[in-house]
Amino acid sequence: MHSVSSPLRLALTNKANHLSITITVTMGRIIFYEDRNFMGRSYECSSDCSDMSTYLSRCHSCRVESGCWMVYDRPNYMGNQYFMRRGEYSDYMSMMGMSDCIRSCRQIPMYRGSYRMRIYERENFMGQMMEVTEDCESIMERYNWSSGCHSCHVMDGHWLMYEQPQYRGRMRYFRPGEYRSFRDYGGMRFMSMRRIMDSWH
């Protein structure tokens, strides 16, 4: 009995230690400004924020000092999504083609490990299935799916999926989980995908 339980406790201890280190390393930081060129009032954020209007009435520029972030043009992580990595965005609306201000943001956890996703030709995990472990710039060319991907199961890693080939068009962030339908995303279909890599942080 002792020989079975002892390694389990050791594994849990190692896992807990790893988790505490990961939390320390992945503390992201993003600063939002009311006006372009980092002018006006500012709000510093180090975790998810569901409604920016609580802190700023408007937001026209930002600095990502650490981490990777998804920003949204609606509160509660709704609306169009945009990916931001470390850097300065003095006028992000024109730089990224946004038509509205950032209203909410979500930090993407730093991840080191394998990437694995199953994509399906139809909703509810129906139709042809392919397992993906690397970036794919055109689902249509690689798998001959003319209508793209309509459901997916993300098993490992964090991914960005795009409505057009070559990582163009509107994007969506996918973390591990099952996605039976993309109707909540306005019925989008996805034609390319890429991994959010640790090297992007």
Explain what this protein looks like in three dimensions:
It holds the Pfam family Crystall. The protein is α+β, with helices and mostly antiparallel strands and 201 residues long. It folds into two domains: 29-108, Crystallins (Gamma-B Crystallin, domain 1, Sandwich); 116-200, Gamma-B Crystallin, domain 1 (Sandwich), CATH 2.60.20. The protein is built from three helices and 14 strands. The protein has helices at residues 2-25, 92-96, 139-143; strands at 29-35, 39-45, 61-66, 68-74, 78-84, 87-89, 104-108, 116-122, 126-132, 151-156, 159-164, 168-174, 177-179, 192-195. The strands form four sheets. The chain has a four-stranded antiparallel beta sheet. A four-stranded antiparallel beta sheet has the order 9-8-10-13, with no helix packed on it. Strands 5-4-7 form a three-stranded antiparallel beta sheet, with no helix packed on it. The protein is elongated. It starts with a helix and ends in a 6-residue tail after the last strand.
Give a summary of the structure in a few sentences:
By secondary structure, the chain is α+β, with helices and mostly antiparallel strands. The chain contains three helices and 14 strands. A hairpin with a 3-residue loop joins strand 8 (116-122) and strand 9 (126-132).
